[in-house]
Amino acid sequence: MKIGLQAIENKIFGFSIEEIEKWALKIGTDLLMSIVILLAGFWLANLASKTIRRVLKRSNTDESLVTFLSSLTSTSLKLLVVVTSITQFGIQMTSFVALLGAAGLAIGMAFSGTLSNFAGGVMILVFKPFKVGDTILAQTAQGVVKEIQIFNTHIYTPDNKVVILPNGPIANGNITNLTKADNRRVDFVFHLEYGCDFDDVKSILFQLFNAESLVLQEPKPFIGIGAMTTASIEIHARVWTFTDDYSSVFYTLNEKVYTELNARGIQFHHESAVTKA
Questions:
Q1: 89 or 164, higher pLDDT
Q2: DSSP string, 179-241
Q3: Which of 56, 71, 98, 272 has the fewest CB atoms found within 10 Å of its own CB?
Q4: CA distances to 96, 108, 124 from 66, in Å
Q5: Among 3.30.70.100, 3.40.1190.10, 3.30.990.10, 3.40.50.300, what is the CATH number of 183-276?
Q6: Which of 237, 230, 271 lies closest to 257 in space, CA to CA?
Q7: If you write DSSP's letter for every residue of 1-12 in order, what string do you get?
Q8: What pTM, to 2 d.p., does this model score?
C-alpha cells in the first residue's frame, strides 16, 4: 500500500515531482524575463522616442517630421520588444507567424487599414498638404494640426477638443488648408431694411474698412448688393487681410459696422443678424 501511494506521489500524469518542479521553475523564469523585457523595452522605446524628438527640435527640423519620426521610432521599437518578449517566453516566431497566417482574411483586412494609414502619413510628409501648426478642415473636423504621427494626425479644435484622424482617409480625401496662403478674404453679409440709402451705407462701410489697420488695401475692399429678398436687402462686403488676422478682422468689423449703422439710424432686418458668408 505504501509503495502504491509513493508511486502516485512520485508520478503525476507520467511526470515525476522533480520534473514538474523543473518545468514550473523554467516557465516562471521565462515568464518573469518576458515581463522584464517588455517593461524595460517599452521604457527604453519611449526614452528613445523622446530623445529623437529633442535632437530633431534642436536641429530646427520641421515639426511635422519630428512628430512622425518619433512616433515611428516608438512603434518600431515596441514591436521589436514584443517579438523579443514572446521569443523569450519560449514561443517560436515561426509558430507565431503561422498562427497569424491561420487568421486569414480578418488579419489581412486589419493590416491593410494600418498600412493604408502609414502610407497616408508618408504622403502627407512628402507632399505637405499641411504641416504642424496649420489650421485645416478634413473629414468634417476643423482645427489646428498639433501632431502628425505614423498612423494618425491630431487636430485641436477651437474649443480645445482633440480630434484624432487616421492618415489614410485624410491623404485620400479633401483637405482645406485655411492658413497655407499668406492672405485670406473676409466675407460679410448685412441684412438691412428696405428704404435705407445704399450710397450712404456704402460710404460708411468703406470708411470703416479703410480705417481698420489690419485690412489690406490691395485687393481693394468690395461692397455691393448681393440680393433683394421679400424681407430685406443683402449687402455683401469683402475685404482682404493677413491669414493670422482673419478672426480679429471679422469680429472687429462686425462690431464696428453694427455700432455705426445703428448710430446713423440704419436698421438691420429684425429676423437677421450680421453673418459670415
A1: 164
A2: SSSSEEEEEEEEEE-TT--HHHHHHHHHHHHHH-TTEESSSPPEEEEEEE-SS-EEEEEEEEE
A3: 98
A4: 33, 30, 13
A5: 3.30.70.100
A6: 237
A7: -HHHHHHHHHEE
A8: 0.61
